[in-house]
Design a protein that fits this description.
Distance between the termini: 76 Å
Keywords: Nucleus
Low-confidence stretches: 266-272
Mean pLDDT: 90
Order of helices and strands: HHHHHHHHHHHHHH
Strand content: under 5%
Largest sheet: none
GO biological process, one term: establishment of meiotic sister chromatid cohesion
Protein name: Cohesin subunit SA-3
Helix content: 55-70%
Oligomer: single chain
Number of helices: 14
Organism: Eudyptes chrysocome (Western rockhopper penguin)
Family: Belongs to the SCC3 family.
Number of strands: 0
Length: 272
């Protein structure tokens, strides 16, 4: 009897979905399309057994191409709610393979607030779906740490930290303050030198400040690395120069607490 009632309810839900949602998710009014995507994400989280399937997920994938900012934003937020848990992310393999290219391309979305949420989404995918993002996918996100929007650069900074710079990302490694920070700075130097944007150390530091500020303020480890003379442990000239630039940018950031020139929200004009 319970099974029959459950089937009856699911048939009713399916009729409502086909009679209302399927028509309204393409409504001419952007707000209605956005509400459809928001609610579909809610249904998938609250009733995964029925709604977290490729037959429903495809609607979110298609709507990632919507021309209106708020609709794309609701699609990305709905996906964040699914990729943020490993148990729901496990149902997303086919969807990911079909729509990952679109999601990665949206890092360059013309609307900065959409791009911020996309980078956060990719960070969740990085954390909850093993090996789903290729190195090529990640290379699309790394340069964003140098953009002028602080919110977007900070989101990319967290992605970069989790993917490349976190010394404890290797499973089973015992944390060790000095050792970890040495590893962090060596990884950071490798990234900074390879990105060949040395005049922008302040932007890189600012992007990482929220997620790796305590490491960047570890003056003791930075000094030890700069003073190390052992050929095995010491830095080559190019690394030393880059580390001095990072040190200078970190000191300025710690002292002033302000993002570098050209980054951050526009300042309000006070009274003349």
């Amino acid at each position: 009897q319970l099974q029959e009632q459950q089937e009856e309810i699911e048939n009713m839900m399916n009729a409502v979905f086909k009679g209302v949602f399927v028509h309204r998710y393409r409504d001419v009014v952007p707000e209605i399309r956005a509400i459809c995507m928001e609610e579909l994400g809610t249904w998938m989280r609250s009733y995964a057994a029925s709604f977290l399937t490729d037959g429903y997920l495809k609607y979110i994938g298609w709507t990632l191409h919507d021309k209106q900012r708020e609709v794309r934003l609701q699609c990305v937020k709905a996906l964040q709610g699914l990729y943020c848990h490993q148990d729901t992310a496990a149902h997303m393999e086919l969807f990911t393979s079909r729509f990952k290219t679109r999601m990665v391309s949206m890092v360059l979305d013309k609307e900065p607030d959409v791009a911020v949420e996309v980078v956060k989404l990719l960070t969740l995918m990085l954390e909850n779906m093993e090996e789903v993002l290729t190195e090529e996918d990640c290379q699309s996100v790394y340069p964003v740490v140098y953009v002028s929007s602080r919110a977007l650069a900070s989101a990319a900074g967290l992605f970069l930290y989790r993917r490349l710079l976190d010394p404890q990302r290797e499973a089973g490694r015992e944390p060790s303050h000095d050792g970890d920070n040495r590893i962090f700075f060596r990884l950071l130097l490798a990234f900074f030198i390879e990105s060949e944007l040395h005049e922008h150390a302040a932007y890189l530091v600012d992007s990482l400040w929220d997620c790796a500020g305590p490491r960047l303020r570890d003056w003791e480890t930075i000094s030890a690395l700069l003073l190390e003379e052992s050929p095995a442990e010491g830095l080559v000239d190019r690394q030393e120069k880059a580390l001095v630039e990072i040190l200078a940018a970190s000191v300025v950031q710690a002292a002033e607490g302000q993002p570098p020139v050209g980054r951050g929200p526009a300042k309000k004009v006070t009274g003349l």
